[in-house]
Amino acid sequence: MSGQVGVIHHVGITVGDIERSLAFYVDLLAGRRFGPWRRSGPRVDAVTGYPGVVVHRAFVDPPGAHWADKASKC
Fold it and tell me: Which residues form the Glyoxalase/fosfomycin resistance/dioxygenase domain (predicted)?
């Protein structure tokens, strides 16, 4: 193994201001913004451990990556 990262599918980051954070990461990665969307329900409850929580999520797709188009439909 070469010690280099080949692909990172996604990273979850909890932030206080999603709009400000999206602007930062779009600028940093020179990427395209997708979202934000609200998600809730049994799966989100199970993943977060907080029943009834509403999660706001978004993606920044860096140049050359095309997974966010598909992930946004999740």
Answer: 8-47
Judged against a pLDDT cut of 60, whether residue 68 lies above it is answered with no
Q: CA 12, CA 53: separation in Å to the nearest integer? A: 16
C-alpha span between 50 and 32 (Å, rounded): 30
Check pLDDT > 60 for residue 24. Answer: yes
What is the separation of C-alpha 68 from the centre of its chain, rounded to a whole number of angstroms?
9
| Cβ atoms within 10 Å of 15's Cβ, excluding its own | 13
**What's the pLDDT band for 64 if we cut at 50, 70, 90?**
confident
